[in-house]
Amino acid sequence: MMEASEIKAKKETVLLHQAIDLTAGRHWKKEGFVVNRLFTNESLFRDFEIGTRKLLLSLWKKSGLAITDDFQLERYHKLASKQELHLAAIEKTKLLSVSQFPVPIKEIEHRISEICKTDLIAKNPFGNQTIFHFRVIRPKSQDNNPLHRDVWLEDYANCINLYIPIAGSNEKSSLTIIPGSHHWPEKNTERTSEGANIEGQKYNVPAVTHIHGEYEILRPNPKVNEVLVFSPYLIHGGAVNLNTDQTRISIELRLWKKNQ
Q1: DSSP letters along 54-102, please?
Q2: Fewest CB within 10 angstroms: 58, 136, 192, 226, which?
Q3: Degrees (nearest 5) of the Cα angle 78, 135, 219?
Q4: Average pLDDT, the chain
Q5: pLDDT in tens, 228-259
Q6: Are 175 and 227 in contact (CB under 8 A)?
Q7: Are 214 and 188 in contact (CB under 8 A)?
């Protein structure tokens, strides 16, 4: 059951049409997303894999989890089955400075700038934050965000989103999106007026409670060394991990146009 007052939107406003659209001019502008190769340099990708694993294990150890150096990342739920352990662990894996990114952040900025054909930087002009997160979704849990638009929180306007799979990300667990929804007027959706509360689980972002008309939910499912690049104006989330015995781990990162 979803709690919090609801907004039944009647506005014709299309939020994207009042913003910097980093999908504009791209062959994927209609859908609002694209899956592409992350690192074209295999050596850099290996550095990324090694650095990501090292960082995650270090952060989890600091949270109190009994992690060994040979631990399989997708088995996280075996150690963090209790909610208090999970909450302590995810506190360590969010709001991380890009200075801790597994490879120099300029490598990501350069690659995503190539994909978007625009010079981008991992720095939010709204408060000048330079951060990324690990998203950790245990199997058949309520760890995932509900369906939402990021830009219902104003500090995520004008950017482009990245979903980078790390472990346990597949056709049953990867992020879900509604293609083309970045061009929907606000009247197409009803949502909570503030962060949703679903069966006691609180979320920062307002949640979709109803969608008017037909729509399709997809899991683009990027593979190893791929990245899902998508508009924050797309409705996305609601990505329940349907795997029975794999935790899904991904990196969440946003970039903005340089000098905007």
Answers
A1: HHHHHHHHHHT----TT--GGGHHHH--SHHHHHHHHHHSSSEEGGGSS
A2: 58
A3: 100
A4: 92
A5: 999 999 999 988 999 999 999 999 999 999 98
A6: no
A7: no
CA distance 95 to 158: 19
Q: What's the chain's length in residues?
A: 260
The CA distance from 6 to 119, in Å, is: 38
> Is the distance from CB of 220 to CB of 177 less than 8 angstroms?
yes
Single-letter residue type at 35: V
Half-sphere exposure of 126 (CA within 13 A, CB side): 11
Domain boundaries, the chain: 2-257
Q: Does the pTM of the predicted model rise above 0.85?
A: yes
Residue type, 100: Q
Q: Are 74 and 168 in contact (CB under 8 A)?
A: yes
Give the span between the Cα atoms of 61 and 117, in whole angstroms. Answer: 39
The dotted CATH code for 2-257 is 2.60.120.620
Among residues 4, 1, 2, which one has the least CA distance to residue 194?
4
pLDDT tens, residue by residue, 104-163:
999 999 999 999 999 999 999 999 999 999 999 999 898 988 899 999 988 899 999 999
Measured at the CA of 237, the angle between CA 16 and CA 130, to 5 degrees, comes to 70
Helix (H, G, I), strand (E, B) or coil at 210: strand
Interatomic CA distance for residues 258 and 260, integer angstroms: 6
